[in-house]
């Protein structure tokens, strides 16, 4: 999972401007990252609003042939400014906790109307909050949850719109930690049981059977598993209708992968339309409203983590670049052996290349961003950009080693706005006694 290329093409939000002497300076849209690093410090998450919107629109366009709502998966990046940007496009949201729902409501109270609530462990408090907010759909994952939901709805005298998250038993090639559509996984309900639960749900006047939902995993780049899952879902819709259920929604989940090696925005338009065709194929003629829950494919390539090299060191045969970002800021390489391209913010073509590990200061061997990576020669004090870090970067960050989390900056045209302040020591100890 760690291919290496000498000069990877950049995602379109992050490109080099090159001066007369051939020196390159990496920009986010039109703003040099050196300037942002000086102004806001490092490590620093930088996102491009235009890239997020471009990707959202490409998604939306690809599904034009059928009625649909894109429910951006908040877990990928839950910053309020990013949610606000998407809410302004009338985007819906996929949430998996009371906290995520509160974020959506904070941004726009009426956005709750387009919220789907997924997850295997919804608590009574979370269910009550979602009922009161009037969300679009509960994706129910077990018999116990169905019972709890009916009880909560009855207490509040509200009707809960539900879909069962069915487990299509479709294998998808991705990291085992983020594959979800197999029988052995904790997610969803096996098809046979789903029919029984739909029957039970229909008997409760506090539950309104409204849809069928599925999510087979994340970072899936081959579209075949999506078509296979949707074929099964289409059969389920027909069976349920034959049994008298009024199925309006099909929720196809998220999961469309991105290329962490290289992909331009135009490639995304192509990838998303291939994906859309494979999702829609089995649904034509079914007269359903399609819900989609993309996360990574909307925000991943729109963000980078900017970090400064603190030290260079050599242990025997190995070179290390010790940077000021660490696994607490971006855990994907440590957790999933994920590959992220790492490029110098200032590129000097007269310099050669080096093979090096890029590591953080945290006291764990797993604290690395790259291993034995061939990359341009850089020096202490230089800046690096870790690309495709907009999804599951900041949202998976922690304070491990008592490290305050990075600031986040959103670039919109020529302006850069801090959308989350860098944490301070006071933030770290807040609530401790
Ligand atoms: N819907 C459901 C029910 C999900 O569980 C997920 C992701 C999504 C939608 C959004 O999937 P996406 O379009 O972003 O692939 N931390 C991992 C990814 C975990 C994904 C969890 N569920 C990573 O950094 O790769």
Overview of the structural elements:
With 433 residues, the protein is α/β, with parallel strands linked by helices. The protein has 2 domains: 14-48 and 301-429, Lyase, Ornithine Decarboxylase, Chain A, domain 1, CATH 2.40.37; 49-297, Alanine racemase (TIM Barrel). The chain has helices spanning 33-40, 49-62, 80-87, 98-107, 124-133, 143-156, 191-203, 224-242, 265-280, 296-299, 332-336, 425-429; strands at 14-18, 24-28, 31-32, 44-48, 68-73, 92-95, 115-117, 137-140, 160-167, 189-190, 207-213, 249-251, 289-292, 303-315, 318-323, 342-344, 346-347, 353-359, 368-376, 383-386, 407-412, 415-420. Strands 4, 14, 15, 16, 18, 19, 20, 21 and 22 form a 9-stranded mixed β-sheet that branches. An 8-stranded parallel beta barrel has the order 5-6-7-8-9-11-12-13, surrounded by 5 helices. Strands 1, 2, 3 and 17 form a 4-stranded antiparallel β-sheet that branches. The protein is elongated and about 70 Å long. It starts with 13 loop residues before the first strand and ends with a helix. The relative contact order is 0.17. The model is unreliable at 1-10 (pLDDT under 50). Bound molecules: ligand LLP.
């Amino acid at each position: 999972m760690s291919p290496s290329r000498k000069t990877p093409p950049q995602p379109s939000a992050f490109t080099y401007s090159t001066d007369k002497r051939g020196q390159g300076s990496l920009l986010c849209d039109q703003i040099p990252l050196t300037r942002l690093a000086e102004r806001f410090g490092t490590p620093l998450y930088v996102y491009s609003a235009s890239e997020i919107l471009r990707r959202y629109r490409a998604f939306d366009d690809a599904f034009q042939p059928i009625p649909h709502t894109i429910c951006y998966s908040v877990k990928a990046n839950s910053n309020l400014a990013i949610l606000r940007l998407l809410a302004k496009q009338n985007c819906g949201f996929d949430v998996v906790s009371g906290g995520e729902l509160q974020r959506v409501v904070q941004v726009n109270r009426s956005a709750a109307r387009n919220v789907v609530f997924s997850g295997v462990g919804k608590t009574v408090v979370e269910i009550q909050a979602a009922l009161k907010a009037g969300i679009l759909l509960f994706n129910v994952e077990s018999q116990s949850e169905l019972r709890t939901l009916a009880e909560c709805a009855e207490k509040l005298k509200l009707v809960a719109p539900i879909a069962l998250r069915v487990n299509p038993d479709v294998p998808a090639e991705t990291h085992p930690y983020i594959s979800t559509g197999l029988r052995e996984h904790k997610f969803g309900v096996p098809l046979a049981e789903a029919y029984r639960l739909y029957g039970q749900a229909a008997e409760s006047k506090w539950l309104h059977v409204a849809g069928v939902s599925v999510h087979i995993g994340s970072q899936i780049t081959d579209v075949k598993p999506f078509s296979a899952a949707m074929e099964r879902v289409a059969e389920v819709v027909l069976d349920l209708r034959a049994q008298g259920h009024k199925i309006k929604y099909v929720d196809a989940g998220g999961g469309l992968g991105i290329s962490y090696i290289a992909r331009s925005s135009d490639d995304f338009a192509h990838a998303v339309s291939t994906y859309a065709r494979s999702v829609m194929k089995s649904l034509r003629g079914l007269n359903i409203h399609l819900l989609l829950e993309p996360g990574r494919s909307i925000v991943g390539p729109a963000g980078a983590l900017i970090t400064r090299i603190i030290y260079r060191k050599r242990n025997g045969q190995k070179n290390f670049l010790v940077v000021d970002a660490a696994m607490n800021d971006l855990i994907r390489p440590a957790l999933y052996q994920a590959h992220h391209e790492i490029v110098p913010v200032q590129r000097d073509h007269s310099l050669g290349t080096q093979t090096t590990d890029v590591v953080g200061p945290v006291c764990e061997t797993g604290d690395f961003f790259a291993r034995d990576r061939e990359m341009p020669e850089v020096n202490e004090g230089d800046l690096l950009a870790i690309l495709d870090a907009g999804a599951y970067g900041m949202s998976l960050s922690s304070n491990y080693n008592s490290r305050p989390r990075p600031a986040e900056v959103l670039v919109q045209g020529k302006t850069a706005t801090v959308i989350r302040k860098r944490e301070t020591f006071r933030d770290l100890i807040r609530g401790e006694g």
